[in-house]
């Protein structure tokens, strides 16, 4: 039996076939690859939303756990930032308070103030008379009847000094003056407060890393369970030649959606906490004759609270899918 003859294609037929393929490509347009890429990502996104809608309780629990893990360190960081803002600028405040002897008259106090203003290491000097100090104390202490019962003013003249450079050096030189009774440097307690705030900030970072790792494990385990439920489907896709990117894409969107939702819920929890403690804080601050308002995370902080958990969820899903794909390669005959 003779072998069938191989069909021959002449040049005109080949040219016509190439022209047909070229015409089809032109009809698709130059943006066809972009539309195809967008279609794949849209499919992955809506597929992930469908999986979350199929198990709303499990999705809500995962989002809530991640939101709490995110909100706790952020709440601590915001608390420390508001405390630092309430106490004033720790680094900039170097004011020195000088209490003169009680028998120093105002004329001599004025001369001392003028002498100190001439020093190169002193920026400003404010003289407060005993009468001004007593009036301020009467207003702030609430002991007006007891103060009015005093025969003499027990307060001395006070100098409020803002040094140019090192407040400790200025305070030491002032303490050696014979007219000075007590020197009080505000920077001492502020430096201690600054140290405590720095320590609290370090704790907030440690909590953020630890709870962030916990949130990463939560979303990774959630995506891993979803992968196990669809392991047969994934195996068929891999057997038919689907790439790792095609298989991984819906799960990456799933992890990112978990992260984005948890970040939004964390913002809501922080806002509720602010509304809850705001009135009590205002009453406390008002009792000291001051005014203070809580500051939130701001625009950059809100963007970080949404984008950070999103990336965290994406990373957890990427690790979970990568582990599954490496360990479950289909065997083809």
Summarize the structure in short.
The chain is α+β, with helices and mostly antiparallel strands. Helix content is 71%, strand content 7%.
Molecular structure report:
The structure is a single chain. The chain is of the alpha+beta class and 333 residues long. The chain has 2 domains: 43-89 and 192-327, no CATH class; 96-165, Alpha-Beta Plaits (2-Layer Sandwich). The chain is built from 11 helices and 4 strands; from the N terminus they run αααβαβααβαβαααα. Strands 2-3-1-4 form a 4-stranded antiparallel beta sheet. The longest helix has 44 residues, at 186-229. The chain starts with 10 loop residues before the first helix and ends in a 6-residue tail after the last helix.
Q: Give the low-pLDDT segments.
A: 1-14
SSE order? HHHEHEHHEHEHHHH
Distance between the termini: 33 Å
The chain-level structural class is alpha+beta
Biggest sheet details: 4 strands, antiparallel
Number of strands: 4
Strand content is 5-15%
The whole-number mean of residue pLDDT values reads 76
**Count of structural domains:** 2
Give Rg in angstroms. Answer: 36 Å
**Overall geometric form:** elongated
Give the count of helical stretches: 11
């Amino acid at each position: 039996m003779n072998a069938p003859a191989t069909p021959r294609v002449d040049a005109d037929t080949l040219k016509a076939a190439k022209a047909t393929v070229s015409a089809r490509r032109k009809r698709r347009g130059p943006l066809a690859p972009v539309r195809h890429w967008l279609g794949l990502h849209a499919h992955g996104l809506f597929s992930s939303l469908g999986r979350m809608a199929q198990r709303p309780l499990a999705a809500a629990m995962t989002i809530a756990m991640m939101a709490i893990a995110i909100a706790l360190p952020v709440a601590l960081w915001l608390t420390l930032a508001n405390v630092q803002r309430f106490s004033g600028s720790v680094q900039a405040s170097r004011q020195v308070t000088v209490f003169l002897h009680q028998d120093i008259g105002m004329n001599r106090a004025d001369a001392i103030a003028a002498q100190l203003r001439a020093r190169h290491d002193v920026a400003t000097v404010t003289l407060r008379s005993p009468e001004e100090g007593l009036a301020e104390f009467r207003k702030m202490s609430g002991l007006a009847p007891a103060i009015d019962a005093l025969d003499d003013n027990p307060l001395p003249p006070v100098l409020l000094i803002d040094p140019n450079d090192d407040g400790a050096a200025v305070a030491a030189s002032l303490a050696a003056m014979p007219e000075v009774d007590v020197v009080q440097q505000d920077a001492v307690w502020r430096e201690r407060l600054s140290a405590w705030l720095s320590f609290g900030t370090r704790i907030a970072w440690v909590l953020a890393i630890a709870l962030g790792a916990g949130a990463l494990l939560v979303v990774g385990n959630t995506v891993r369970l979803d992968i196990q439920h669809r392991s047969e489907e994934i195996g068929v896709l891999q057997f038919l030649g689907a790439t790792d990117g095609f298989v991984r894409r819906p799960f990456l969107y799933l992890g990112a959606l978990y992260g984005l939702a948890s970040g939004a819920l964390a913002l809501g929890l922080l806002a509720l906490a602010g509304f809850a403690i705001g009135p009590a804080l205002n009453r406390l601050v008002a009792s000291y004759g001051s005014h203070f308002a809580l500051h939130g995370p701001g625009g950059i902080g809100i963007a970080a609270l949404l984008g950070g958990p999103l990336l965290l969820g994406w990373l957890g899903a990427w690790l979970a899918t990568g582990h599954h794909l490496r360990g479950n390669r289909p065997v083809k005959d």
